[in-house]
């Protein structure tokens, strides 16, 4: 007496009912309490799942179908409202479990701070970890007006954890002067404005390494992703982002986990951004999960 | 590895995980293909569930909590797009099963035509059935521009099935002249404009009888329910509708099933209507389920 | 090879194709260039027509059908953008023609300044004219920041033209202190906050007189008419406004023309206001046209 | 006593008042009852006409003005809600009449299924017909969850009618694996992702042949056309679509009819899509009508 | 070279330029990080100021003009994103300063938690303080899913600080069963559903006492205030809320400060709620400031 | 007792508090009364300031920070509603004062007609003035349906004032045939469709000359700027517009003033356009102010 959950919009389309049998785990991190501008990304994961039923199950780009990969959708982690510290602890603990079960974690934000505990967990398992980061923003602050737990700090934190030379940012078009100077001084990679072309140059250097990919949807131009907290003109097209996902899929790196963050449905008037996010996740599943 | 479904927004808040153990069954009928004006109610059930997590579990009106009733949320019936005939067959078959298991059916629309197969199924089980119908519209047409399967016909159909004197409409403010004339001629009850006061007069007459209650959200004034296909000024307040639900709860009728239809989220810009619908359903559960 | 225009949404539903044979003329005055707050009412008339196809042709309130009245929809007067002086001249000239043909003028705004030239034209034909004005605002300014052609001045202008004791305002809840003082001094009637009850008291005094009725949609509470330039809390319900229209219909005054103004679709997110406006116009047609 | 209809927004701007004297006929097909995702395209034709008054009458691209072509706007065919079978019969019958009068049919949808009866009518007149199809989707299904009358089937139907080698699809980025395989097997042309460049290669092959062009607005990227039922990231720009229209205009094919479908205003929050659609139609009129 | 700030929308209309010369201080508390449902109230204060320029400066209800009261608009307190503890400390410190200067504090939220530090500061100055609280919700939780700093806790906190018998809640229609039980046990006043009538009974009991009034905009029905985080059907009208403000103004209590919270512009599609909030604040200024 | 105005959203971010000490003056021209299609740009300047607080103060494009330039934000000129003649006189007078104080004027519209009085003022100071104009539209009409004061006329007016060979238009894709013919005949420069490449060719020719740059936001494609009165498909990306601003910054022309007009927030559903406009203005400040 229950209709097929795989097409209900309650889980990402075609999700597998068994955690144990799955290769990957999709999960939501519905947190937006530290954002400095427009909140609302807490509702991102639920809406991405909801519209995923409009997706075709086949990718013409990768010539693969969703039934070729088994993934389980665990739902949204019930994070405590207004408590960033406890929230990131819960996220880290959850991802630890996913990794302990040897599954591929695919997270949906929520604000970008949620990627910090995920990357911490990844690093515990993969000491040789590298990060590919696509974003309009550096996210290299030490704190935002005094707050170290801020959506503008996760990349700085991971640089300090795994070493800045292991972190590669693409599509960056905004940040403080100091952030760019710091990145230059410590040898962290930042490709301004562009994603696809510089990514193609970086990928061979990372061949064979375990890589976590974190995508802030605002790397897209506002024309392609109005539904996010901090829109920033001059970004890339969804076509370039799709091609970048495919470039990673065809490279020799080992993708060991990934996330897509900062989707804020309340600013997404025609549901354009959540539909695009759901297509991106399909391509991430089809292109990355079995590359581990 | 799955977070508590009862608070996920995937089911109506606090839904019980077991069909067998439940007294009532909630189900969605995501159909809007015959509407003559604005479509979109197919997305009503999913959004009502989604926002139900914002509800308190306690009703100050009825001094009851949701945990006092066990109800199962079966999800949305996967109706075939653009095929009204097959859709109503599937709905009838589903409700037959619910009734066979002796559960209370609580349906969410979808356009009002979905109530027709439900009422047919109810009548098979309850030959003494009466209908309470709250709506801005008569819904007494034989057909709409030639189409007998139309959201403007379900009340006419049920009148013909169970006899017009067993059907009681409230809050009606729009219809064709012929519809009102027909109702008068055949002795069907129509209370124009008002719901609560005439309902209080009718309820004693129905004492002890099995009654199915069908609520078209557009019985509310557009100020209270903008998110519906056919807004019609001059309606009642949500306060009056809540009080009407409570009047039924405190009456001596036996409510044997109910529905809430015509919630169309795309026209519900601030999510006002879906939030109101979800509160109405909480009150219907707490007030009506155990009255059978 | 043209589908029935009466149900096309291009004219008010059921409009008669012949000007000559009609008793009344509907026309739009798409002007919003002097509004001090939010523009957009230029698109009001077109949208009211468009949604009028969703109306029932029968009024349960008045037990009449639209086919009992012949009215012609002339479309929108092509007013020159940004030129209030020329605009009001064109409106006056148009209404002069309507009146010369002995038709009942039913205008749709546009900002409230459009009523000024209409009332001027009416007065030329009906020297004994009285005005019934429903509005949240006094509209009794001499000028707005120096501009005498402003949406906040039409009632002052008509008071000066026909004498303030012939002007009756209802539902007023906002204005300058000086406006209320002036009204009091010169004996103009203002009913604050309420419409229906004070109207019932005034109507007998106007028995037999020719009356022009001008309705600013913002007399409704913002809950009932969000789609207007200047929303003002504490207003009346659409139910009270409908009842007021009906009270006039049942009174002994001679309605010789009317308008409904300040409908601004861009602020009308769920099309609630334009749908309400279209129902109001149906009632004005059915209740007032043949009272001349 | 009627203002110039050509600039009223009731017809496409500058439409000619006489069917007989016109070379082309514009008509709306307001049907959306079989769509599997978001309905609402029934309101597309009316809104495209409404905003067409904001267009310049001159095309800088083609150096032509609208007055150089005579076209008649017949309005919207009054299709029966929820009845796809009868709807497509009415459409075919209407287009038969247009073709019998030797006019160029220019249709506006409505969902893509409306193109099927049009193409059927075209084929009766032009046995050598070829189809140019621009879309994000293959539309090559036999049925959608059991329904053969679905917006995802029209291209399959026309392939079967006129032979798949006479059908050329461009811009396709979504579909089932089986659809692409079928196309390959039967020799139907599909250009994935791109429109302009592959079109330039195909056009010479079609020189001299009668061609019907059907454009699904979702061939545009969601950034360029959010107002449609099924947005799909990774599409083309409006610039590329305009250039594609111009490439056809400058080619040696004989365009014998065309349509633009799937414009859904309710998802078009800033009216961007309807404005773009209206510009596209201007270019289709100026570039294609006299190429017959 | 600066245009008159009093009419700029940057301050509440007609604000006085001098803090020292003013009787009252308006300030914003742009915090929404602990809300459990829909965030966005951080933008409430700025939007209320912005639309305040559309207000008349005269109140017909109170027959007073804004120039009769001197009030200074201090702007928004720059609260640290995502840090509730530090935020409430900053608010308390700010209000301490306002009170030290013997000014009347009029705060704008932001989520309801912001009222907690304000009430703490008030109590330090007024040991005999009573609280009038208008809200749909009890706000009597000890914590929300473990978080004591939550928008659902401020009334519980102030009850514990000043004693529950000094706190009067009105209009309450939602809460946990335990909250209502606790209120009953400790003798705290809760008027369910209604505001005006029970308030009129309470006011004489508070005659002569210093009272802080905290208004959660969601005490209004969603029809009257869609732009808030937690809409809850069955609320009061803006007319009743205006009358309640006036009842307090005409009573013998000493209003020593007040706030209006939970206005969330992103859900306020037609700017209805912010316009209503700005009118409410005008009435609070005119009715309450000089009652100290 | 006032929080830092530079980050309040009341002025453009980081504005300097002193007119005298500043190099540039930002000012709003909130006028939209002559627009022929969709009004609403009167609210553009206020919203651009409001969202400017979301900007980074550093430009990665120009490697400069806002603190390197001193600019004063004078607020919005209080223009008289519905009176274009008086409005343009007030604008000219204001800019005269700015120029008399030897400041760089940076104006925000409002409709494009506001640029006309600014350019008049500029020409009085700079007899050798040239104009760079970026727009979708020619704006070369003599009048719009009889009105010489129209948003479609400012470029014609300035051509007549300073000579058409001194005016350079870029990105133009719409206009009347006569406008293009006139431009050609009199030797005015129009680059159709493109901005960046033709601009690079023109800039060397203008080396050393004083140039006023006027940008109509609708030069952007609707995908990049939905929030404007007259969206027109086929435009440039925000990336191309940013690059064009930077090309001017790096050229040898002397920019002596500039404006950005036609931003209409009511059509800007996700605040995409105002955020883009605010970024453009940051680049104009950093790139152009000290080039005088
Ligand atoms: Mn980020
Ligand atoms: Mn970012
Ligand atoms: Mn109904
Ligand atoms: Mn109904
Ligand atoms: Mn008025
Ligand atoms: Mn008014
Ligand atoms: Mn298609
Ligand atoms: Mn398609
Ligand atoms: Mn509260
Ligand atoms: Mn509350
Ligand atoms: Mn322009
Ligand atoms: Mn332009």
In brief:
The structure is a homohexamer of 292-residue chains. By secondary structure, chain A is of the alpha/beta class. In chain A, 32% of the residues lie in helices and 18% in strands.
Commentary on this structure:
The structure is a homohexamer of 292-residue chains. Chain A has helices spanning 44-52, 84-100, 115-125, 154-162, 177-186, 196-202, 238-250, 272-288; strands at 24-29, 58-59, 64-65, 71-76, 104-109, 130-134, 167-172, 189-192, 210-216, 254-261. Chain A is of the alpha/beta class and 292 residues long. Chain A has a single domain (5-291), classed as Arginase, Chain A, CATH 3.40.800.10. In chain A, the strands form two sheets. An eight-stranded parallel β-sheet of chain A has the order 4-1-5-10-9-6-7-8, with helices on both faces. A two-stranded antiparallel sheet of chain A has the order 2-3. The longest helix of chain A is centred in the N-terminal third of the chain and has 17 residues, at 84-100. The first copy, chain A, is globular. Chains in contact: A-B, A-D, A-E, A-F, B-C, B-D, B-E, C-D, C-E, C-F, D-F, E-F. Chains B and C meet through loops of B and α7 and α8 of C. One manganese (II) ion (MN) is lined by residues 112, 135, 137, 139, 216 of chain C.
């Amino acid at each position: 007496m229950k209709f097929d959950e795989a097409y209900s919009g309650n889980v990402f389309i075609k999700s597998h009912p068994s955690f144990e049998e799955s290769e990957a785990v999709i999960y939501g991190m519905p947190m937006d309490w530290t954002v400095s501008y427009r909140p609302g990304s807490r509702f991102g994961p639920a809406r991405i799942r909801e519209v995923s039923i409009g997706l075709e199950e086949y990718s013409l780009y990768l010539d693969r179908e969703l039934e070729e990969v088994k993934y389980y959708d665990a739902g949204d982690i019930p994070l405590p409202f207004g408590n960033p510290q406890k929230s990131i602890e819960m996220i880290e603990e959850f991802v630890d479990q996913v990794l302990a079960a040897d599954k591929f974690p695919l997270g949906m934000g929520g604000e970008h701070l949620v990627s910090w505990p995920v990357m911490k967990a990844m690093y515990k398992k993969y000491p040789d970890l590298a990060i590919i980061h696509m974003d309009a923003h550096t996210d290299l602050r030490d704190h935002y007006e005094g707050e170290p737990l801020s959506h503008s700090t996760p990349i700085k934190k991971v640089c300090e954890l795994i070493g800045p030379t292991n972190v590669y940012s693409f599509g960056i078009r905004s940040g403080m002067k100091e952030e760019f100077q710091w990145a230059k001084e410590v040898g962290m990679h930042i490709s301004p404005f562009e994603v696809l072309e510089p990514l193609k140059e970086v990928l061979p250097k990372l061949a064979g390494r375990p890589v976590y990919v974190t995508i802030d949807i605002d790397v897209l131009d506002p024309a392609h992703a109005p539904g996010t907290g901090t829109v920033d003109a001059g970004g890339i097209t969804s076509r370039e982002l799709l091609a970048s996902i495919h470039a990673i899929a065809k490279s020799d790196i080992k993708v060991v986990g990934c996330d897509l963050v900062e989707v804020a449905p309340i600013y997404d008037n025609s549901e354009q951004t959540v539909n695009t996010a759901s297509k991106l996740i399909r391509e991430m599943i089809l292109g990355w999960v079995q590359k581990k």
